[in-house]
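User: Hey, quick favor. My workstation is busy. Could you predict this chain's structure for me?
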Amino acid sequence: MFNYNIRGSMFKKILIIIFTTLALTLNVNAGSDGELILKKNEPSEVKDCFEKINRVTFAFNQTLDGAIFKPVASLYRKLPSPAKTGLSNSLENVSHLLTIPNNILQGDFKQAGINTGRFIINTTIGILGIFDVAEYLGLTNYEKEDYGQSIAKLGIGPGCYIVLPVLGPSTVRDTFASTLNFLGGDPWYNVTVKKDTQYFENSDYYYEKGASGVDFRAKNYDSIENLEKNSLDFYASVKSLYLQDRQQKILNSRKIINTQDDSDWEEISQ
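Assistant: No problem, here it is.
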């Protein structure tokens, strides 16, 4: 059993290294525009270096959405409002575990303190985050942060646009940054999949990610349907929306994006 666990752990690390190396290789070999990849690019400057592959992946994701996420989200929307709000609050509460270390990395110690207070209050008094008690106490304006945003604050540009199977829109920078979650950077991953405590199982992590995807899809159900219906090129519209939203998150802009809850746009892509 001991040898099996060691081999399993080594295999996971090897996969992560290979995936990271592949991402960096794609970044370097993106073509003659490779020199733009490590610059502070505006959304309009993000190159779609792998458009043909991206469109195939996008079509696959759309098929998957129609078969799974959309029907489940449709049923989810029929739940009583208190149930949906409670689940959404609970999922947001878990996201604090990734946001707080990124607040610190970005030098925003005040917000790190506020978010730590929010997490403690909502986890305890709010019963595992079901109730957002912290908001009633004045700890508001919660904004999610991730390693992609932290790396961007260092001046690293997004690189090429990528559509990941199942996970959806991303960039080379954000794809690389997401691997940090599996290398000890995500406390929720550590206590579930890596079993740093005995209170959680591997499945808890994946249930949370799946629930976040359904919650996002349900919140933006009508917006996504309208976007698809009114777009001459749905792929291009989603790409533009995603890149604008990511840029606004990096700049901590509060400009409204055409989704019902744009703060959750990255849920499917992380």
